[in-house]
Design goal:
mainly beta, 157 residues
Length: 157
């Protein structure tokens, strides 16, 4: 007879298989209200293992004194300069609206609606591709193969 599936063994929950929310930090983008300039520049001061997710977090200190945690891109390192905003360069770790990115650019940590902090493509090693852009929509191919229509003001790394 075959073994029971892991979800069947867990059942409704017990002290052995308990769901916890003990993450290292909330990984979200900086609010639009804090971004007063066209670009917000910062530096990666640490890479943190988060037990609540598969991806590594990066701790970023900005020039205005604020700190933020975000999902780290592959190739990020301590001491790297990052930029947030519409005028940010197209480099690994920088965050900018998907309407300002070029087509076929790999992106991750994509927002569903402008300002929600990033909720799509956040798992380790996954990325989405910008297929094409219109004035009012950006078509993004997700890791599942599905194509989504998103607002060009949504941010992504």
């Amino acid at each position: 007879m075959p073994k029971r599936l892991k979800s069947q063994r867990r059942g409704k929950g017990s002290p052995v298989f308990v769901a916890t929310n003990k993450g290292a930090a909330p990984a979200q983008y900086v609010d639009y209200t804090e971004m007063t300039e066209k670009t917000l520049k910062g530096e990666v001061v640490g890479l943190i293992h988060d037990p609540a997710r598969t991806a590594v977090l990066s701790k970023i200190e900005f020039d205005n004194g604020s700190q933020s945690y975000s999902v780290a891109a592959e190739g990020m390192f301590v001491g790297q300069k990052v930029e947030y905003g519409t005028e940010a360069d197209l480099q690994v770790g920088n965050v900018k609206p998907i309407g300002n990115c070029v087509e076929w650019c790999p992106i991750f940590n994509v927002e569903k609606t402008p300002g929600d902090g990033g909720s799509l493509v956040r798992s380790s090693g996954t990325y989405a591709l910008i297929v094409t852009k219109d004035k009012k929509t950006v078509y993004v191919k997700m890791p599942s193969g599905k194509t989504m229509e998103l607002n060009p003001k949504n941010r992504a790394t």
